Amino acid sequence: MSNTDPRSHLISGSNIWNVCVIDNIDFKQSTFARGNIFDVTRSSTHAILRLVFQFTLPIDISLIEDETIELNENNFTIGRNKDADDLMQSFINIIQEFLLFNNNNNKLTFAQNFNMELFNKKIIETYNTCMKDIPPANIVILEAGDNPNNNDNINESCDQYFKDLNIPNNKSINIGCDEAIFRRIMRYYIINSKVQPLLGMWHTSKDMCSVLLVIFSSYGIYNFAALLGVKFLDKLEQVVDYRSTCRVLDLIWGAVSCALHIYAKKNNINFNEIMNIDNNLVKVWYCFFEWGSYWKGHRLGIRTGNFLMQLKCLEAFSPLFPVAGKNNYTKSVVQYLSIINKSPRLQKLLNFVGSVNLTRDGHFYAFDEALETFGVKFIKENITGNIYNNETLKRQIKAAQSERERMDLLVGEFVNDITVSYTEYAINSRQEALWKLTDSLVIAFESQTPTEYHLFHNCKELTPTGYQKFFESYNLGKKRLIEIYRQEVLHLDPIITKGRRKKEIVVTKVKDVQNTNKKNNKRNQSEITTHIESNIAPTESNVESNITPTESNIVSNITPTIPAISQLENLQIVESIINDERPQKRKRHTKTNEEIEILTPYLSNPSPTDNDTNLILTALLNISDHWTKKKVKDTWHNNKKKLNKNKNNT
Fold it and tell me: Could you tell me if 548 and 617 lie in one domain?
């Protein structure tokens, strides 16, 4: 294991570009240490997983001029840009193609026979033109580094790439990583500019999801998600699962897009002029369409290997990070964009290879996504035994590739097939939920009092002050990015960290919404009860009439309003409504003398058979429907325990 050399898998050449990626990998001990398990916790072992993607480019890399551009205030581009706007316009055109608007006799009709899967497939077909001539990358997992919670270990792991890849010290290396490690490498980059960190686009896309949820939390986005069928809104809020969160945001974006187009068409408004109308609610959700398009475009750039699309959509989206109070990503995005702008050579290389293809043609992963999704998984699947210290973990990682190759060779000898088939998952299109949300949005957009509509309950920022703060937030975020750029990159101003976590909008947590709903339900329940007690007193005629309510009456009044309750004439219906809302307590069954008489011979039997139990059960069911076979057996076991306890006491 110690003699294994993963560098033997590396390839070399003047047209080979090495993209290095590092990430944390950790293991917990499989067993507790000797002693009391309640006093001793299992220790964890951490290491730096080091991987390299080797791409074969169609040109000689040495011919690319390695020049450096001096940064200033003019060459830092953030905010809206032509490329991002052109992408958004193409989204608009595709949506209009699917909707197929038709105005016949002043009656607007449109198609509803499409879903987000068809839309996404269309845009991927349109933009999936990059990396056609680039063969699959050679992937090598190199010797692991020490614990990543130490800056020196991170620096040492970066320097080790120069030795492993035989790169001269005067040449630079590019290292992709998540945002936490990016901040550590940036400290080293200030000392050694030959180590160029690349901010992981997958982790960035994940934080973009969180930004959208935070910004629109007080404007109804969680109500939209609930209408789509999301059960665990707190997990959505935390972006626990990236794919599921993207799916929900994609559906919301699709519904908002269709609703905005329908609203604009009905009111003869140019779609691109929506921000000039007086309907503030529509303008808020037009911003979601616009900012969500930047997020979709960034993700589309990852999936198609289009680096320019990733870059321009990130530049357009970047002012939203400070708006949502994402201080770490705000600073990291500024530094990452500065590195890209400073190095034309790096831009050219990334234009050749913006993502990595691992599983199937036309489907790409960000560098950090590939490492975390496949690299970490590969290592954890191929490491055996109990990992109890860092050195053992590093040796296991070092040998994992060789062990896997030998296993693949062995399997190939007997099965004659070592390929893995990757197919698309069968996905529920949620088409019905998509159009249900779309129809609800159209109604709300056209309403004079949209805050009374169920989609916008508990949306505390749908006020003139809330609207004004929202519409100013993007430019304020852009201003804060420029301040950080001047302080952290150009060093023109003193670094001031106070106030960087300030949010430009009011955030509503899912927990706050749930607590508000509980309070409202309690208040409504007390109002209903009070109204019943004051207005519906039982009279003698009510009691003596003995009217039996029909099922239709009960169903139609399950959730009555106070005026509806005041019109009810039958007290039994009101009582059934109130009682149905409260769970009934289970009543304890008390054995009758007749049941005890039947059970006595059964309980004295030292080992009753199933036939005996069934006979007793049949007799008991003639008296009460409480009994089941399990309850009869439990009665026998409880009686036996009681007898044994009394015997021991005597």
Answer: no
On the 0-12 / 13-18 / 19+ scale of CB atoms within 10 A, 516 is middle
What pairs with residue 139 in β-bridges? 53
> What is the C-alpha to C-alpha distance for residues 299 and 202, in angstroms, rounded to an integer?
8
Q: What is the domain range of residue 164?
A: 6-72+131-199+364-396
480: Cβ contacts below 8 Å, ≥ 6 apart: 319, 322, 330, 500
Query: pTM, whole model, 2 decimals?
Result: 0.75
Q: Do residues 195 and 220 touch, judged by C-beta distance below 8 A?
A: no
Output the pLDDT for position 476.
Answer: 95
Residue among 418, 407, 358, 301 at smallest CA distance from 51: 358
| Structural domain contains residue 341 | no
pLDDT category, 626, cuts 50, 70, 90? confident
Which of 512, 531, 548 is the last residue in one of the domains?
A: 512
Same domain flag for 112 and 245: yes
Q: Quick check: 624 and 599 in contact, CB under 8 A?
A: no
Mean pLDDT of the region 548-577: 37
Distance, in Å, from the CA atom of 161 to the CA atom of 48, rounded to the nearest integer, reads 13
Are the C-beta atoms of residues 127 and 120 closer than 8 Å to each other? no
Give the per-residue pLDDT at 394. 57
- Asked if residue 338 has pLDDT above 70, the reply is yes
Amino acid symbol at 9: H
pLDDT at 440 over 60: yes
Report DSSP letters for 150-176, one per residue: SHHHHHHHHHHHHHHTT--TTS-EEEE
Buried b (16+ CB within 10 A) or exposed e, 79-91: bbbebbbebbebb
Same domain, 274 and 311: yes
477: which 2 tokens? 């975020």
The answer on 278 and 223 residing in a single domain is yes
pLDDT exceeds cutoff 80 at 506: yes
State pLDDT tens for residues 120-151.
999 988 888 766 678 888 988 888 888 888 89
- For 516-558, the pLDDT digits (tens) are 766 666 666 666 566 555 654 444 444 444 444 444 443 334 3
If one counts every other C-beta atom within 10 angstroms of the C-beta of residue 249, the result is: 25
Tell me the sheet residues that pair with 54: 18, 138
Q: Which amino acid is at 418?
A: I
> Residue type at 210?
S
Average per-residue pLDDT for the chain: 82
d(CA 382, CA 25): 14
Q: Which two tokens stand for residue 273?
A: 């002029």
Quote the pLDDT of residue 575.
Answer: 36
Asked whether residue 575 falls in the same domain as residue 597, the answer is no
How many degrees, rounded to 5, is the angle at CA 572 between CA 570 and CA 577?
Answer: 110
- Residue positions counted in the chain: 650
Specify if 351 maps to a domain: no
The pLDDT value recorded for residue 427 is 56
Total domains in the fold of the chain:
4
Of 493, 512, 531, the one marking the end of a domain is 512
Sign for the CA dihedral angle at 350, 354, 355, 361 comes to negative
Q: What is the pLDDT of residues 342-362, one digit of tens each?
A: 999 999 999 999 999 876 777
Rg (CA), the chain: 33
| Rounded Cα distance, 538 and 540, in Å | 7
| Cα 280 from Cα 262, distance rounded (Å) | 17
Q: Calculate ∠ Cα 303-309-313, nearest 5°.
A: 110
CA distance 248 to 574: 40
User: Contact 389/45 with Cβ under 8 angstroms?
Assistant: yes
Q: In terms of domains, do 66 and 142 share one?
A: yes
**Phi and psi for 45 in degrees, rounded to 5?**
-120, 130
Mark whether 48 and 124 lie in a shared domain.
no
Q: How far apart are CA 256 and CA 252, in angstroms?
A: 6
